[in-house]
Design goal:
- This is ABC transporter ATP-binding protein.
- Keywords: ATP-binding, Nucleotide-binding.
- It comes from Lepagella muris.
- The chain is of the alpha/beta class.
- The protein has two domains: 1-85 and 163-235, Rossmann fold; 95-160, no CATH class.
- The protein is built from eight helices and ten strands.
- It has helices at residues 45-52, 75-82, 101-106, 116-129, 145-157, 175-190, 202-205, 223-234, and strands at residues 3-14, 17-29, 34-38, 60-65, 68-69, 86-90, 163-167, 194-199, 210-215, 218-219.
- The strands form two sheets. A six-stranded mixed sheet has the order 6-7-8-3-9-10, with helices on both faces. Strands 2-1-4-5 form a four-stranded antiparallel sheet, covered by helices on one side.
- Helix 4 (116-129) crosses helix 5 (145-157).
- The chain is globular and about 50 Å long.
- The N and C termini lie far apart (40 Å).
- Bound molecules: adenosine-5'-diphosphate (ADP).
- Adenosine-5'-diphosphate is lined by residues 12, 14, 19, 21, 39, 41-47.
- Adenosine-5'-diphosphate binds next to strand 1, strand 2 and helix 1.
């Protein structure tokens, strides 16, 4: 999925406090690329991903996905656009504990115009790919963190989305499960998906073909400026 972001701004208002989470962010991402968004906690990574994933809308600016302006759609239109086109992977897995593995993975297929047998086929394919076919009747809390993240990835890919957004996908995993998740993201990338991943980890970011540095809601292009930002953070 091709992404074109122009002059994006996001301001949160809590009581009388205004927080500028994104400040004049412009960015183009080619279809099929794997981009890592890096930066310290609070710099706006999740906010950017949430806007790209149509979970939130910006205060100002433009966001075009495959040429379609989505920045200021109403909530219902955002949900409709998102369905089947965008898959999410979160640090905390975000599975529904009351639903079993199969029901969790089925969720994105809910309102898609597919036959029951096609939905079953897609779930089978995603669970095989994530090596969790033998866990379909388990509930999330009966699984390890690594297994829960594999269920979450199966849910993210079951509708064959063109865009996968991963927010600190290895943040709650040990190093071997983290490496496994990064291997899966590499495979999805090779399969043609566009991946945008927020991360603190340089090791994870090294899997991407492009790294974008965010600091205080802004993209920092120049390495010297970036070093200055990090020095300020230390003092
Ligand atoms: P990161 O993902 O890089 O840690 P976030 O995008 O979560 O950063 O947050 C960027 C800034 O916006 C932070 O200062 C955070 O406190 C603020 N923020 C994020 N979400 C909200 C919200 N819903 N309401 C108010 N402030 C928020």
């Amino acid at each position: 999925m091709k992404i074109e972001i122009k002059n994006l701004e996001k301001v949160f208002r809590t009581d009388s406090v205004l927080t500028v989470a994104l400040n004049d962010v412009s960015l183009d991402i080619e279809d099929g690329s794997f981009v890592a968004i890096m930066g310290p906690s609070g710099c706006g990574k999740s906010t950017l991903l949430n806007i790209l994933g149509l979970l939130d809308s910006p205060t100002k600016g433009s966001c075009r996905l495959d040429g379609v302006e989505v920045a200021h759609l109403k909530e219902r239109q955002r949900t409709d656009y998102r369905r089947g086109r965008i898959g999410f992977i979160f640090q905390s897995f975000n599975l529904i504990n009351e639903l079993n593995v199969k029901e969790n993975i089925m969720l994105p297929l809910g309102n898609l115009d597919l036959s029951r047998s096609e939905k079953e086929r897609r779930v089978e394919e995603a669970t095989k790919r994530m090596h969790i076919s033998h866990r379909l009747r388990h509930y999330p809390l009966q699984l390890s963190g690594g297994q829960q993240q594999r269920v979450a990835i199966a849910r993210a890919i079951v509708s064959n989305p063109g865009l996968i957004l991963a927010d600190e996908p290895t943040g709650n995993l040990d190093s071997s499960n983290g490496a496994e998740v990064m291997k899966i993201l590499d495979e999805l990338h090779r399969g043609g998906a566009t991946i945008v991943m927020a991360t603190h980890s340089l090791k994870d970011a090294a899997h991407a073909d492009r790294i974008i540095n965010l600091y205080d809601g802004q993209i920092v292009e120049n390495l010297t400026d970036l070093m200055c930002c990090y020095r300020c953070l230390r003092h």
